[in-house]
């Protein structure tokens, strides 16, 4: 049933990565992404890939889930790798009309594939080990300085919180409405595209009506509980950096330093960004 | 001591279609609510009771007349947060009033809005959850709880703001008997132990009989106001206004009209059994 | 042959996963044409799953549902036809309304059946009459109706399919006493006029006992009892033990019997109770010693 779909793909646990402050995790993820992109040769990329592998190992989430996340993008990886395979320069190792494969092409293809997979995996670590609530919280607090530029950080975070809260409820509702319309003979499985689209109306209209009704109630409930925007609002949970966070930060800095040194002293294998 | 004063309140909803008359739902209503009391507001759908519920904390404003809570007029913009802090509102649909996806974070929502320091919020949340018996569910997701549990979390969210009064707008209408009992037990406990003023809007008579005062609304007017024993003694009158009476009360009434001498107005089965036994011996 | 036959019906959620849970466990019973059956059980007793198996919205993991002696899953592609014969009104059915007018909404089911427009028109009018919807409401948007009217319009949408069996899940939930009385009266009248089989799920023993002939009590996925209303109420205290509420009037009669009065406890309406107690007045009181024995039995 629809309601069984898990959202955000969070796997509760007690690993070192789980226990890190969400803000630190978001910051480090950002830097990991930057350095994975910045790596210009196989050694630098190798360091980053090894680091990603290490993080996965200590994240305490089953490797199966990581394989799943790669499976979802395998087509994109193969497609980009193939494109790059034929775009190399230098002596062709193999040629058929205008298609030629060169050593540099092979290098680029492997390089790009590793890069995309590393990016996906490190992002998966964040969503797998951080609850959606923590994530929202972390983002809100990190972006707070932006409110100087009149960006409504609190409002955005509030919207995310409410979305997280109501998505399961609305999915359940969709399930109920579908059953009810099926009981009146609705057929969602046969017919051409247009017929199927039309068959969705009896689900979408009640769903929207219900979403609006809920929104109306929720607004009233929030107002009753003295909600008046982000101004003067405090939070129950205080996020505090612990020793673990500084340890993670230190280790990451070492890795990043290694990548920088390698990039300076070793020649670039790949010319392109991507 | 009076806590809420309702003075000559009139309210009308805008006409749904052009040419129609605006629908007046409250027609010149006045009453007072004592601090610490447990008042049940009865009336069938469309009697104006839900509209009135949303006026106690200024969500709706009277068209004419005033509502004064603890000396503060709900029309006054500058003190509206103080009114809402002292009068909490619990709605019918338990799903639509929870904001966060973790129970304790939801309970913290009110105190956070009031700008209370974090350590104090923690204390308030824990004690609020304990007082509705939901402490062990503090880390759960609301959508996985039963209706009665969700409704108790909603009540905890109000309690954490340390209000003096809670208005409940048909809090049990969507619940099963088990959930109804949980919510009613909680409400009664809060009234007895924490001396919180309770205004319960309901159409379940077995809930209304547990209050110490019953106000019956019909067509925007108060038609009865008094202790449950007094109000429910008028079985025919209530039936006329399409309201129920508890079966115990109806049985006693029917027996006395058939010539038995039943004393008083029994409101529950225990009272009814002893009244019947007394009449038989 | 019974109209509807449930044969060792079971349903397990999430087979072969960590969430495996048996919602309905080996339920067998027969339902005859024209019966009015009340189904009661607390939340999670499996009653919702059970009724959804009766019209093929959920496929049983074990056992069979026989309609006129034929397994409803004999031809899975024809399952829609079963849904037209076994109509189902869900809880809060007003949340499924979607058309521009009440009339069109009621016509949605009959249209899916492929009926011609004259027949649909007739069906809509009949259904509106059965649910006491005033003709002028038919042209209105369903979202303009009052709560009780919306509920009845949604029920009309199922009645318009003219099902042989009508299943209603908590049709009175959230209504005020007046709305509840109107609806129950309409359902009873529909049953009487049509002579159809009706299954009504409710938490309220009071409502069920008012209109049903037989009651099915579900407990933890099992059939706890399936019997006439009177026989079920004679076991009132057992029913209370599995966490169900019995009417206040039944509790009063049980209380009187316990105090030594010779009254029958299978009472579920105020009228019956008045008669029972008035009988006591006419009879002289039972001698105290005998009465005590009576109470303990």
Structure description:
The complex is a heterotrimer of chains A (274), B (281) and C (297). Chain A is mainly alpha-helical and 274 residues long. Chain A has two domains: 2-134 and 239-265, no CATH class; 145-224, no CATH class. Chain A has helices spanning 16-19, 22-38, 42-58, 63-71, 74-85, 103-129, 132-143, 153-183, 193-199, 201-224, 243-265, and strands spanning 92-96, 99-102. Chain A is flat, with a radius of gyration of 24 Å. Chain A starts with 15 loop residues before the first helix and ends in a 9-residue tail after the last helix. Residues 1-7 of chain A have low confidence and may be disordered. Chain B has one domain (2-228): P-loop containing nucleotide triphosphate hydrolases (Rossmann fold), CATH 3.40.50. Chain B has eleven helices and ten strands. In chain B, the strands form two sheets. In chain B, strands 6-7-8-3-9-10 form a six-stranded mixed β-sheet. A four-stranded antiparallel β-sheet of chain B has the order 2-1-4-5, covered by helices on one side. In chain B, 53% of the residues are buried. With 297 residues, chain C is α/β, with parallel strands linked by helices. In chain C, 47% of the residues are buried. Mean pLDDT of chain C is 89; it is low at 284-297. Chains in contact: A-B, A-C, B-C. At the B-C interface, helix 6, helix 10 and helix 11 of B face helix 6, helix 10 and helix 11 of C.
């Amino acid at each position: 049933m629809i309601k069984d779909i898990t959202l955000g793909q969070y796997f509760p646990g007690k690993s070192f990565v789980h226990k890190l402050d969400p803000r630190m995790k978001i910051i480090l993820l950002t830097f990991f992404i930057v350095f994975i992109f910045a790596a210009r040769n196989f050694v630098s990329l190798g360091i980053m890939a090894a680091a990603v592998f290490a993080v996965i190992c200590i994240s305490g989430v089953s490797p199966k889930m990581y394989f799943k996340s790669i499976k979802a993008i395998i087509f994109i990886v193969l497609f980009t790798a193939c494109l790059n395979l034929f775009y190399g320069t230098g002596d062709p190792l193999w040629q058929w009309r205008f298609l030629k494969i060169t050593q540099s092409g092979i290098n680029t293809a492997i390089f790009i594939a590793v890069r995309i997979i590393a990016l996906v995996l490190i992002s998966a670590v964040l969503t797998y080990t951080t609850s959606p609530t923590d994530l929202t919280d972390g983002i809100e607090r990190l972006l707070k300085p932006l409110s100087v530029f009149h960006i409504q950080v609190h409002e955005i975070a509030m919207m995310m919180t409410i979305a997280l809260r109501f998505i399961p409820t609305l999915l359940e509702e969709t399930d109920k409405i579908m059953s009810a319309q099926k009981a009146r003979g609705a057929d969602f499985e046969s017919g051409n595209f247009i017929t199927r689209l039309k068959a969705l109306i009896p689900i979408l209209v009640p769903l929207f009506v219900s979403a609006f009704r809920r929104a109306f109630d929720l607004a009233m409930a929030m107002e009753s509980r003295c909600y008046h925007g982000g101004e003067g609002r405090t939070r129950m949970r205080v996020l505090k950096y612990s020793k673990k966070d500084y340890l993670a930060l230190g280790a990451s800095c070492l890795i990043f330093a290694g990548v920088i040194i390698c990039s300076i002293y070793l020649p670039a294998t790949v010319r392109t960004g991507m | 001591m009076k806590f809420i004063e309702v003075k000559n309140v009139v309210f009308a909803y805008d006409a749904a279609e052009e040419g129609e008359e605006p629908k007046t739902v409250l027609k010149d209503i006045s009453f007072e609510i004592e601090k610490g009391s447990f008042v049940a507001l009865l009336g069938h759908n469309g009697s104006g009771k839900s509209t009135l519920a949303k006026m106690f904390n200024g969500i709706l404003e009277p068209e004419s007349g005033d509502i004064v809570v603890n000396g503060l007029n709900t029309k006054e913009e500058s003190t509206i947060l103080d009114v809402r802090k002292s009068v909490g509102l619990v709605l019918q649909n338990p799903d639509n009033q929870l904001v966060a996806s973790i129970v304790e974070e939801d309970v913290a929502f009110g105190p956070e809005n009031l700008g209370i320091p974090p350590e104090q919020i923690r204390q308030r949340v824990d004690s609020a959850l304990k007082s509705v018996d939901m402490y062990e569910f503090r880390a759960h997701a609301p959508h996985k709880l039963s209706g009665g549990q969700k409704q108790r979390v909603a009540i905890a969210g109000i309690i954490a703001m340390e209000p003096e009064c809670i208005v409940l707008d048909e809090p049990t209408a969507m619940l099963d008997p088990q959930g109804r009992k949980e919510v009613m037990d909680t409400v009664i406990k809060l009234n007895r132990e924490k001396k919180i003023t309770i205004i319960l809007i309901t159409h379940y008579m077995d809930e209304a009989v547990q209050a110490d005062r019953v106000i019956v609304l019909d067509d925007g007017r108060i038609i009865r106001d008094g202790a449950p024993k007094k109000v429910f003694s008028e079985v025919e009158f209530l039936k006329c206004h399409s309201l129920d009476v508890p079966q115990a009360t109806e049985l006693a009434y029917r027996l006395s009209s058939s010539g038995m001498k039943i004393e008083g107005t029994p409101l529950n089965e225990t009272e009814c059994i002893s009244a019947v036994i007394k009449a038989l011996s | 042959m019974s109209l509807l036959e449930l044969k060792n019906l079971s349903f397990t959620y999430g087979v072969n996963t960590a969430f495996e849970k048996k919602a309905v466990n080996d339920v067998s019973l027969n339902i005859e044409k024209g019966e009015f059956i009340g189904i009661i059980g607390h939340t999670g007793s499996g009653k919702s799953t059970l009724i959804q198996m009766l019209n093929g919205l959920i496929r049983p993991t074990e056992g069979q549902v026989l309609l006129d002696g034929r397994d409803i899953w004999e031809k899975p592609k024809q399952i829609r036809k079963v849904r037209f014969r076994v109509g189902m009104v869900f809880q809060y059915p007003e949340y499924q309304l979607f058309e521009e007018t009440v009339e069109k909404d009621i016509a949605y089911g009959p249209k899916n059946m492929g009926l011609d427009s004259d027949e649909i028109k007739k069906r809509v009018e009949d259904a509106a009459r059965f649910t006491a919807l005033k003709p002028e409401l038919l042209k209105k948007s369903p979202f303009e109706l009052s709560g009780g009217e919306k509920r009845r319009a949604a029920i009309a949408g199922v009645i318009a399919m003219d099902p042989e069996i009508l299943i209603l899940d908590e049709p009175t939930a959230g209504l005020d006493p007046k709305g509840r009385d109107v609806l129950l009266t309409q359902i009873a009248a529909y049953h009487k006029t049509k002579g159809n089989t009706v299954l009504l799920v409710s938490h309220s023993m009071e409502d069920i006992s008012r209109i049903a002939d037989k009651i099915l009590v579900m407990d933890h996925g099992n059939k706890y009892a399936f019997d006439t209303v009177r026989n079920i109420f004679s076991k009132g205290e057992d029913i209370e033990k599995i966490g169900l509420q019995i009417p206040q009037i039944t509790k009063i009669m049980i209380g009187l019997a316990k105090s030594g009065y010779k009254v029958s406890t299978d009472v579920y309406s105020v009228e019956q109770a008045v008669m029972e107690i008035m009988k006591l007045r006419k009879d002289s009181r039972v001698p105290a010693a005998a009465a005590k024995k009576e109470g303990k039995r």
